[in-house]
C-alpha cells in the first residue's frame, strides 16, 4: 500500500550548522494518528516544517501521496499546501479578521465559490465548537478558542493531512483534553493527523502511534505508545 | 486525486471574476491606508512625467520649426558672366535633370537688379553698371536633399557659386538632437526615481503585511494571488500620477502657446491637440512604472 507520508534518509542541517534531524526514515499510512514527542530542540517542529515545505531537507527524500515534495517547483508548492491543514503553534490568525473571516479566507485563497464558502465555513466552525464566537476577532478570544479557530481554518478545505505543532501548548489540562478529543474525532473521519506535543498525560491516554525524537534522531516508533519509556 | 493537476491554474488563465474584485478591493484599501506614501508616489510619477513631457514637447516643437524653416530653404545658383544665352538654357536643363529638384526659376541680371533696387532704393545704384549675375532659384522635393542637390548644381559647367541657408538648418537639427538626448537622460533618471519611491511605498505596505502574506502562502495561496493586489496598487499610483502630469502639461502648454502666438506670431508651434497620442503614451508609461515599482519590492516577501 502506498503511504500518505514517507521520509527516506532525511537530514536537516540549518545554515549555521545546527543539525536538527539525522537520517529519519518514517512511513505514515493514510488515516493514522501520529504523535511526535521529544524534548525541546529535538527537531519536532523541523519535522513538521519539512512536510509543508517551510523548510527543505538537506539530504533525503520526502513523499506525500507518492509524490516527491523535495522536487516540487515553487509554482507547485501552493497545491501541496492545499492538501495539508497546518495548525501553527502561534495560531497565525489574521488579527483584523473575525473567526468567520479567518476561516473563509482560507477558502478565498484557493478561489472557492462564495456559495461553497457560505455553506462550509459555519459548519466547520460549529464542528470545533466556536459558533458563538464566529464574529469575534482573535484578540477577543481565549487561547483555547484561538486554537479552535486555527483548527477550523486548517480543516475547512478538507485536507488529506492535518499537521499540528503543539496544539495544546499554552492550554490548561481540560482545554487540552477537549482539543485532543476534537483531533481524535477528525481522525476518525479519515483525516491523517500528525501532532507534535509535550503533553505527556495526553499521549499516554490516547494510545496512538508515537514517534520520539531526541537530538534529531528518531529513537522510538511505537504503536499505542506512551510519552517516554520509564527505565 | 493524487496528481497535482490543478497546478496548471497558476497565473492569469483561470482568474475568476470574484478574485479580481478581491484584488481591487485589497488594492484600494491599501492605497488609503498608506495615505502619505501614496501621495508621495503619485507626486514622484507626476514630476518624472512632467519633466519628461516638457522635454518631449519642446523637442517635438523644435523639430516642427526646423522642418518649417527647411521647407522654405531654396538654392540660389549664380551663373558665370561669360556664359551666353544658349548655355544658360543648357544649364537649366541640367539642373532640372537632377534628382529631387522640384522647381527651377531663372532670374536674369536685370530682374535681380530690379529686386535689389526695390530693397535698397533706386538712387543709390544710379549710373553704376549692373554688378549682379544671372541666377537660378531652385526648390527641392524634400529639405534633406538640399545639400546634395546644391553640390551637384555646383558641378555643372558655367555655375560660379551655389548658396543656400547652410548652417541655420544644421544648427536647428543639432539642437533638436541634443534636446532629445537630454530629455531621454532626464527621463531615465526620473523614471528610476519614481520606481524607487513607488517600490518603497509598496514595500512599506508589504512589510507591514508580511505576516499576512506568509500566512496566505502557508494556507496555499499562489504567488500571483498575493501579488496582484500590490501590482494593482502600484498601477493605480502610476496612473493617477500620470493623469496629474498630463493635466499640468496641457495647462502649461496652452498657456505658453497663447503667449508665443501673441508676442512672436511668426514662430510656428504645434497645437495642443497634436500631443493627444503622446499623452496616451505617458499614461501607459506611468502605469507601467507603478506596476514595475511594486513588483520589484514584492519579490523577497513571496519566498516562503
Ligand atoms: N531556522 C533555524 N535556523 C537555525 N537553527 C534552527 C532553526 N530552527 C530550528 N533550529 C534548531 O534546530 C533544532 C531543532 O529545532 P526544532 O524547532 O525542530 O525543535 P523542537 O523539537 O520543535 O523544539 P520545541 O519542543 O522547543 O518546539 C534546535 O536546536 C533549533 O535551535
Ligand atoms: Mg517546536
From TrEMBL, chain A:
<dbReference type="InterPro" id="IPR003439">
    <property type="entry name" value="ABC_transporter-like_ATP-bd"/>
</dbReference>
<dbReference type="GO" id="GO:0022857">
    <property type="term" value="F:transmembrane transporter activity"/>
</dbReference>
<keyword id="KW-0132">Cell division</keyword>
<keyword id="KW-0472">Membrane</keyword>
<dbReference type="InterPro" id="IPR015854">
    <property type="entry name" value="ABC_transpr_LolD-like"/>
</dbReference>
<dbReference type="GO" id="GO:0051301">
    <property type="term" value="P:cell division"/>
</dbReference>
<dbReference type="InterPro" id="IPR003593">
    <property type="entry name" value="AAA+_ATPase"/>
</dbReference>
<keyword id="KW-0131">Cell cycle</keyword>
<protein>
    <recommendedName>
        <fullName>Cell division ATP-binding protein FtsE</fullName>
    </recommendedName>
</protein>
<feature type="domain" description="ABC transporter">
    <location>
        <begin position="5"/>
        <end position="231"/>
    </location>
</feature>
<dbReference type="GO" id="GO:0016887">
    <property type="term" value="F:ATP hydrolysis activity"/>
</dbReference>
<keyword id="KW-1003">Cell membrane</keyword>
<comment type="function">
    <text>Part of the ABC transporter FtsEX involved in cellular division.</text>
</comment>
<dbReference type="InterPro" id="IPR005286">
    <property type="entry name" value="Cell_div_FtsE"/>
</dbReference>
<dbReference type="InterPro" id="IPR027417">
    <property type="entry name" value="P-loop_NTPase"/>
</dbReference>
<comment type="subunit">
    <text>Homodimer. Forms a membrane-associated complex with FtsX.</text>
</comment>
<dbReference type="InterPro" id="IPR017871">
    <property type="entry name" value="ABC_transporter-like_CS"/>
</dbReference>
<dbReference type="GO" id="GO:0005524">
    <property type="term" value="F:ATP binding"/>
</dbReference>
<keyword id="KW-0067">ATP-binding</keyword>
<comment type="similarity">
    <text>Belongs to the ABC transporter superfamily.</text>
</comment>
<dbReference type="Pfam" id="PF00005">
    <property type="entry name" value="ABC_tran"/>
</dbReference>
<keyword id="KW-0547">Nucleotide-binding</keyword>
From TrEMBL, chain B:
<dbReference type="GO" id="GO:0051301">
    <property type="term" value="P:cell division"/>
</dbReference>
<keyword id="KW-0812">Transmembrane</keyword>
<keyword id="KW-0131">Cell cycle</keyword>
<dbReference type="InterPro" id="IPR047590">
    <property type="entry name" value="FtsX_proteobact-type"/>
</dbReference>
<keyword id="KW-0997">Cell inner membrane</keyword>
<dbReference type="InterPro" id="IPR004513">
    <property type="entry name" value="FtsX"/>
</dbReference>
<keyword id="KW-0472">Membrane</keyword>
<feature type="transmembrane region" description="Helical">
    <location>
        <begin position="228"/>
        <end position="255"/>
    </location>
</feature>
<keyword id="KW-0132">Cell division</keyword>
<feature type="transmembrane region" description="Helical">
    <location>
        <begin position="275"/>
        <end position="296"/>
    </location>
</feature>
<protein>
    <recommendedName>
        <fullName>Cell division protein FtsX</fullName>
    </recommendedName>
</protein>
<feature type="domain" description="ABC3 transporter permease C-terminal">
    <location>
        <begin position="185"/>
        <end position="301"/>
    </location>
</feature>
<feature type="domain" description="FtsX extracellular">
    <location>
        <begin position="73"/>
        <end position="162"/>
    </location>
</feature>
<feature type="transmembrane region" description="Helical">
    <location>
        <begin position="181"/>
        <end position="207"/>
    </location>
</feature>
<dbReference type="InterPro" id="IPR058204">
    <property type="entry name" value="FtsX_firmicutes-type"/>
</dbReference>
<dbReference type="GO" id="GO:0005886">
    <property type="term" value="C:plasma membrane"/>
</dbReference>
<dbReference type="InterPro" id="IPR040690">
    <property type="entry name" value="FtsX_ECD"/>
</dbReference>
<dbReference type="Pfam" id="PF18075">
    <property type="entry name" value="FtsX_ECD"/>
</dbReference>
<comment type="similarity">
    <text>Belongs to the ABC-4 integral membrane protein family. FtsX subfamily.</text>
</comment>
<dbReference type="Pfam" id="PF02687">
    <property type="entry name" value="FtsX"/>
</dbReference>
<keyword id="KW-1003">Cell membrane</keyword>
<comment type="function">
    <text>Part of the ABC transporter FtsEX involved in asymmetric cellular division facilitating the initiation of sporulation.</text>
</comment>
